[in-house]
Backbone:
């Protein structure tokens, strides 16, 4: 099973205290995590900043290095890339409301935060 993650899913450990990859293990068991190159670029841009967002993005980049494969795509923007890659994998991981709706409309199951620290799967 393969999942694509967006920036907020990767930044969630710092921003909301969820253990993203432990939650994915709980929900899916054995899985492969991929991240579009545009999401990595977004995280690199955010990591240069100060405050919680910069810290969260730096942690996210470390998670990408340890847990994910970076994939190429044709999309210019991060959300478009998640949508493009999401059509080719089993699930997308995001808590971005508008992106969730776009993914579900494209028949991509979405894993998103429910409650404080748990993910759940929403089927289209």
Residues:
């Amino acid at each position: 099973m393969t999942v694509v993650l967006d920036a907020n899913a990767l930044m969630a450990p710092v921003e909301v205290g969820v253990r993203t990859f432990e939650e994915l293990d709980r929900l899916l068991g054995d899985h492969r995590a991929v991240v579009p190159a545009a999401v990595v670029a977004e995280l690199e841009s955010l990591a240069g900043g100060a405050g919680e967002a910069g810290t969260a993005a730096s942690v996210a980049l470390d998670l990408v290095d340890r847990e994910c494969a970076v994939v190429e795509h044709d999309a210019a923007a991060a959300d478009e890339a998640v949508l493009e890659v999401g059509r080719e994998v089993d699930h997308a991981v995001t808590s971005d409301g508008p992106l969730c709706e776009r993914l579900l409309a494209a028949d991509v199951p979405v894993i998103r935060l429910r409650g404080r620290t748990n993910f759940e799967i929403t089927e289209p």
